[in-house]
Amino acid sequence: MVTQFHKIRRFALILMLFWTAGITFSFLWFYSHEQRTVVAIARAEARATYEKDTLYRRWATRHGGVYVPASEFSPPNPHLTHVEERDVTTPSGKALTLVNPAYMTRQVFELADSQDNLVRGHITSLKPIRAENKPDPWEAKALRLFETGVTEVSEVQDMGGRSYMRLMRPFVTEAPCLKCHATQGYRIGDIRGGISASVPMEANSAMMGEVITGAAVSHGLIWFLGLGLIGTGARVLGRSARAIEEREERYRTVADYTEGWEYWQGPDHSFRYVSPSCLELSGYSREEFYADPELLHRIVHPEDRTSYEQHVRDSFCGVPNPLDFRIIRKDGEVRWIAHTCRLVYTGSGAENGIRGSNRDITERKLASEALREQAFLLEKEVRERMEREAELEAKNAELERFTYTVSHDLKSPLITIKGFAGAVLKDIEGGKLDRLGGDVGRIMGAADKMSALLSDLLELSRIGRIVNAPSLIDMNLLVKDVLGQLGGPIQQAGVEVMVQPGLAEVWGDQPRIGEVLQNLVENAIKYRGDQQKTRIEIGMRESAEGPVFTVQDNGIGVPAQYHETIFGLFNQLDARSEGTGIGLALARRIVEFHGGRLWVESEGAGGGSTFCFTLGTGPQNPLETGIKGIKGIKGIKAL
């Protein structure tokens, strides 16, 4: 792993290399500059020498040469025989010979050659008169360059094992020069040769060596000082980097390895830090959150976005309340988040954004939801059980009443039969046959009553067990059929029956619904009272439950305290009336079996009664839809 410490060491090493390269470059530049300086000094000295030589040569040329005593050192110049007065004698008899400028310059150069530390000179030409003036290769090259227009040639060369700065300039033919060189064909302005000056480099090189040595020492000291400073800085920075890395390691250990999703948003709402766990929780990487500060806002579930935005505003105002909200993961999955945050501050106390902490509570939410659902189901089950227990208690009480009533009502006809049967036997034994017909009639009446009672009980017990296929019932036709079956009793009682047209169609067991209508019409006829004109109205009205069918009469009415009692087994408001008291109970069972309800509306005695009932409206089987809403079906089955 490349740490900051290693980066600092690598940077320090690179910096040392650059520092070494810089010092080396500086020294090499200084060395090169000094070399150029020495060469420039030598060249300047050579030019000065050349100018000096040219100056006294020009002086001699202007004077046409000079006369010197003829001697072994200066014998008469054989190349000047064409010059008149080459040799002259002074009045004192001293022999003088003419020394032209070239001859004079050559003698001076020969004198300088005898001394090692002096500047050497050489007069030369591509057409030398004397063999000694023949150019060497370097001079020949320079002379050819002069012919191309070059006015000076200089170069450092080794001569006899020593280094010299050689400089050469051309001789241009002037008028005084023709005195000696006209015979060679030169004209004024021609290049007729040149003078080379050779300056020894030893003295300047020795001086340069001292300067270079001093520069090398100073550069070395500066190099060592720079390396020391770089090394010291690297060590100081390395220690600081180690301390920072240790703090960052603690920070990463705490922040990066949290189970939840941690983040820090700056005052501009941009993410300054996002823990890696955001990927597992949201499906988005920390780099995506860094690149898009609005990403968290967008993945909040639309139904929770308003509360989340308000929470963010409150948090930046210093009121960070915890919040549970949903997010939509990158893969589309919805997860629940428990979110808390708080303001953070800089070292100087200035607000520096908020730090948020998110925890995945989806499983907890699902478990809580499951617990609530289980609690609801348990509560529902307890409620249903309590209802069943209450229903069972009611059925037990009803069964007890039923048992008592059956035993009482069945015993009464049996007592009648037994009593009159004994009377018949006594009459037969006594020969009193005139009362025999009446007693037998009473016995048969009691037997008929018992038979009717047993038939009603059998019919009541069949509710819930014998079910016809459900069908769409046209209530208009069904009412017409029922009234047709009851035509005799209706006509005998003088009852006027009115039917509302346009009754609704319903689904159900048509024969059973016909029994309900028949029982309600018979009940209205039976309890018509002393009305001079009995009227029964069969109709319908709309309600939230659907169509409500009504059978209204102007009979004796039902007091409010008996509105529920009359639907019990064997309950009759008028004991003198015919019947067993099971008809209304049977009608209610059938209606409830169809998912509806049956009730009575009456203002009391003498106010007439309106029996109302509703039925299920769907095409489903009444056994499947009505049995859950019927109270007492189990009790009826038990009968």
From TrEMBL:
<keyword id="KW-0472">Membrane</keyword>
<dbReference type="InterPro" id="IPR021796">
    <property type="entry name" value="Tll0287-like_dom"/>
</dbReference>
<dbReference type="InterPro" id="IPR036097">
    <property type="entry name" value="HisK_dim/P_sf"/>
</dbReference>
<dbReference type="InterPro" id="IPR036890">
    <property type="entry name" value="HATPase_C_sf"/>
</dbReference>
<feature type="domain" description="PAS">
    <location>
        <begin position="273"/>
        <end position="316"/>
    </location>
</feature>
<feature type="domain" description="PAC">
    <location>
        <begin position="321"/>
        <end position="373"/>
    </location>
</feature>
<feature type="transmembrane region" description="Helical">
    <location>
        <begin position="12"/>
        <end position="31"/>
    </location>
</feature>
<dbReference type="InterPro" id="IPR035965">
    <property type="entry name" value="PAS-like_dom_sf"/>
</dbReference>
<dbReference type="Pfam" id="PF00512">
    <property type="entry name" value="HisKA"/>
</dbReference>
<dbReference type="InterPro" id="IPR005467">
    <property type="entry name" value="His_kinase_dom"/>
</dbReference>
<keyword id="KW-0812">Transmembrane</keyword>
<dbReference type="InterPro" id="IPR003594">
    <property type="entry name" value="HATPase_dom"/>
</dbReference>
<dbReference type="InterPro" id="IPR003661">
    <property type="entry name" value="HisK_dim/P_dom"/>
</dbReference>
<dbReference type="InterPro" id="IPR013655">
    <property type="entry name" value="PAS_fold_3"/>
</dbReference>
<dbReference type="InterPro" id="IPR052162">
    <property type="entry name" value="Sensor_kinase/Photoreceptor"/>
</dbReference>
<dbReference type="Pfam" id="PF02518">
    <property type="entry name" value="HATPase_c"/>
</dbReference>
<keyword id="KW-0597">Phosphoprotein</keyword>
<feature type="domain" description="Histidine kinase">
    <location>
        <begin position="405"/>
        <end position="619"/>
    </location>
</feature>
<protein>
    <recommendedName>
        <fullName>histidine kinase</fullName>
        <ecNumber>2.7.13.3</ecNumber>
    </recommendedName>
</protein>
<dbReference type="InterPro" id="IPR004358">
    <property type="entry name" value="Sig_transdc_His_kin-like_C"/>
</dbReference>
<dbReference type="InterPro" id="IPR000700">
    <property type="entry name" value="PAS-assoc_C"/>
</dbReference>
<keyword id="KW-0808">Transferase</keyword>
<dbReference type="Pfam" id="PF08447">
    <property type="entry name" value="PAS_3"/>
</dbReference>
<dbReference type="Pfam" id="PF11845">
    <property type="entry name" value="Tll0287-like"/>
</dbReference>
<dbReference type="InterPro" id="IPR000014">
    <property type="entry name" value="PAS"/>
</dbReference>
<keyword id="KW-1133">Transmembrane helix</keyword>
<dbReference type="InterPro" id="IPR001610">
    <property type="entry name" value="PAC"/>
</dbReference>
<keyword id="KW-0418">Kinase</keyword>
